[in-house]
Amino acid sequence: MRRISLLIGTAVALLLLLGVPAFASAPIATTGGASNVWSDTAVLNGGADPGGESLTTCEFTYSPDPTLMLDAQSAPCQGEPSGDTSSGVYAVLGGLSPVTKYYYALTISNGSGSSTGSTESFTTSATPPPAPSATTNAATSVTSSSATLNGTVDANGVAVESCEFEYGPTTSYGQDAPCSALNSTSASESVTADVTGLDANDTYHFQVVLTTEGGSTDGGDQQFTATNTGTGTTTTTTTTTTGTGTGTGTGGTQTPPAVTTKAATGVTSSKATLHATVNTEGGTLVLCEFEIGRSPFGYGTTTTPYGQTARCAPEPSGSSNVSVSATVSKLLASTTYYFRILVQTSGGTSVGSTLSFKTKKAAAKKPGVKITRSKINKKRRTAKFSFKATGVKATKYQCALAVVKKGKAGKLHYTKCRSPKTYKKLKKKTYEFFVRAGNSAGWGPAKTHKFKI
Fold this sequence. Notes:
Blueprint: H1 2-17, E1 28-35, E2 42-49, E3 57-63, E4 73-76, E5 87-93, E6 101-110, E7 113-116, E8 120-123, E9 133-140, E10 147-154, E11 160-168, E12 175-178, E13 189-195, E14 203-212, E15 215-218, E16 222-225, E17 258-265, E18 272-279, E19 285-293, E20 308-311, E21 322-328, E22 336-345, E23 348-351, E24 355-358, E25 368-377, E26 382-390, E27 396-405, E28 408-409, E29 415-416, E30 421-423, E31 430-439, E32 442-443, E33 447-452
Antiparallel strand pairs: 1-2, 2-5, 3-4, 3-6, 6-7, 6-8, 9-10, 10-13, 11-12, 11-14, 14-15, 14-16, 17-18, 18-21, 19-20, 19-22, 22-23, 22-24, 25-26, 26-30, 27-28, 27-29, 27-31, 31-32, 31-33
């Protein structure tokens, strides 16, 4: 008995020396439900017990076929566990077909065996995933060498691919920092990023960018100066006063108007609404307008060809703050604009601080597709098709092959593909090949080719 115990102890020690867990067992996979399901994307969820050692495989297999044999694809797990720790895992799918039922299962393996969870299913909707929303907020905790960047993001119920802040000395940025962890994909929440190594007294631009399966959205440009202020002032206020003016009656010398430029709202790829507060301090209004341009120095003057002005509404008066605004249009997409409020009264002229915003990206167009070549070999029972996108750039393709009966193609099961697409071991039937191209705007119309084996 002592000899057996000694042998067991020696074997255990040898396994530990070799880095092999002494009491490892086969893993246990649990397939969970699908979430964030849209027309062409979904998130598969599951649980993985690694059985005391690192996993060698962790993936979801999915297909329109309930047996997971035909047109099956796999997606690697994210959040993969190791050792004795069980945890949830997931995979984000893209390129799915709208209104189609998919089956899936989680498979994991380690050095002691493998495990496949139960087969579950979900059905994609007809609704494409919406684009995310994002707003860049003012920087805080600003010092001469560091700052905290702030933003608000909402994934609108779509799986998140990335969230980051872009920052740098110009609106070309050049550096990025990851957002703090997101807790939800279905609610608006605040995100931050701490950046260090800044140069004292330099001005920095930054924006938050959220990317999901529905697209990518930036929150618009903000800026701050690296000084020991503790707050992220967007720019230094530059208020100038001209004219002295004298009141009539008992008013004495009049006071210049008090003005504050406020953040722009309703920013799209071609328009935005500018805001400000104005107190005319009892003076007679002469002019109230916003200056806007692609340069923070020219605005609406003849020194820049891009400047323009927009009249305030409503016209301010009296001795209290009045909120004014103006909507500007015909802006360029994905472009940073600078703006400020300018007010002239009988008491003088005041100019508000310079703020900025960045217009959204122009709405993407769906690509078309063209079948450039088809090669049908009836003897070998193969079909090969080459194709390319037309109109705009495509980032993905889907193909389908259906049997034609009574002049009509059967139900389509689109799967991810690329050119050329080859089909083998076809039966002696009439077929119709379908291909479509897609990008962030969705899937364009399909092109088809009928053939007979």
